[in-house]
DNA sequence: TTGACAAAAGATAGTTCTATCTTTTATAAG
DNA sequence: CTTATAAAAGATAGAACTATCTTTTGTCAA
């Protein structure tokens, strides 16, 4: 019997990501993905139940890469101080965005395409919104108060500002600068913040 | 002869915005819009050349609201110091997002549907990306240097931080708080940054 | 009251896409 | 070499949607 090509599923995901990066997630169709991989359109369904599963596949693969970072273990550890987890979450997301400039963009694209609540993050910390979950947990536990929101903001600012300093001080070599433009940098930083579910519910 | 209902075009735009807010821009169809307004589907085409024109209509109406703010006049004035224009741009966008929590989200959604460069902003300052255009113009003119990027960052931070202070100091009444969650606030602030065209070009 | 005409509704052609079902192809095992 | 079987391709049903063309409705002006 024919042996299954185990790399094919990854190739399909790769092609989907390519389309997202070039044309946005709204432009994805099974026909286009199949054509890019060089297989029949129906073949997609041997590897993914439906189109939703394909998008989930892309999302989960990117999330998995995030989880492999050692910092994420601290974030997921409920015994650690909530503020440290907040800081670590933001910082690791930011560092990740430097090493994987497309990754968070892809995640954002799929989040934008998803109606209602994003299911994808639920397995991360048992909530749809990790940073909010951490924050609310902190408030509930009496560790955080309203004033601590300022702390969170400060963390975000300082993390981004650190990169700006690196730029100034020539820490990066010419070919090594993660972001060439201000908007690139800010956007990557912005991408760390989960989707504003609250804005959607009317 | 029958008189044209001049409010109908606005009603169509309103319905489109409603759909974007609830289900995202990918969910827009002329059928759904027409049903929401309570008219025939073909009727949409009496007011808009095609679907693209409908989306443009939504986008341009939101942009027009932005331009009505007095701060925008400073941004658009080429005689003003480039740094002041940068600051004013960011600040006015932020203030606008506080008063119109859905507006920037709608803009972002339509940008998502547009492949490649967004044409919509070109009439604003003669570029696809106002903040980058301002920034690059400043560098070209010798007014800005790399180090000035830090200034821009600082401006962004301080603008957001001001809101955080407002929260702390009880400037807002209970029912008046523009954002209830951190992610809401940051996301709105992030939306002020134009789309990362640079990330898309491979 | 009637004719003119724009607005609105209705019908539909044509396209695109998802997902399933059928047929063909390739290969491992006997 | 043959057979079994999974993978791949091909075909297509069915849904949804855009955009256009035709018919009906409503209303202003003579």
What do these coordinates show?
- The structure is a homodimer of 202-residue chains.
- Chain A is an all-alpha fold and 202 residues long.
- Chain A folds into 2 domains: 1-48, Orthogonal Bundle (Arc Repressor Mutant, subunit A), CATH 1.10.10.60; 69-200, no CATH class.
- Helix content of chain A is 65%, strand content 0%.
- The first copy, chain A, has 12 helices and no strands.
- Chain A has helices spanning 7-23, 30-37, 44-47, 51-67, 70-76, 82-99, 103-113, 122-125, 130-140, 148-168, 182-190, 197-200.
- In chain A, helix 1 (7-23) packs across helix 4 and helix 6 (82-99) packs parallel to helix 10 (148-168).
- Chain A is globular, with a radius of gyration of 19 Å.
- The relative contact order of chain A is 0.11.
- At the A-B interface, helix 1, helix 7, helix 9, helix 10 and helix 11 of A face helix 1, helix 7, helix 9, helix 10 and helix 11 of B.
- Chain A binds a DNA duplex (30 and 30 nucleotides) through residues 1-5, 29-31, 39-43, 45-46, 50-51.
């Amino acid at each position: 019997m024919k042996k299954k090509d185990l790399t094919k599923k990854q190739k399909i995901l790769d092609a989907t990501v390519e389309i997202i990066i070039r044309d946005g997630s709204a432009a994805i169709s099974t026909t286009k993905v199949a054509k890019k991989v060089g297989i029949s359109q129906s073949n997609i369904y041997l590897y993914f139940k439906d189109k939703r599963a394909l998008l989930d596949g892309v999302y989960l693969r990117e999330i998995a890469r995030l989880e492999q970072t050692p910092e994420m273990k601290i974030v997921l550890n409920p015994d650690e101080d909530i503020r440290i987890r907040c800081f670590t979450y933001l910082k690791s997301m930011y560092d990740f965005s430097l090493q994987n400039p497309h990754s968070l963009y892809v995640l954002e694209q799929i989040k934008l395409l998803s109606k209602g609540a994003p299911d994808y993050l639920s397995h991360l910390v048992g909530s749809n919104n990790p940073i909010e979950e951490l924050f609310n947990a902190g408030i509930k536990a009496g560790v955080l108060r309203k004033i601590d929101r300022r702390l969170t903001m400060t963390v975000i600012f300082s993390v981004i500002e650190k990169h700006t300093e690196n730029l100034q001080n020539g820490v990066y070599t010419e070919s090594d600068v993660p972001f060439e433009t201000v908007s690139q940098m800010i956007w990557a930083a912005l991408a760390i913040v989960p989707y504003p579910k609250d804005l959607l519910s009317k």
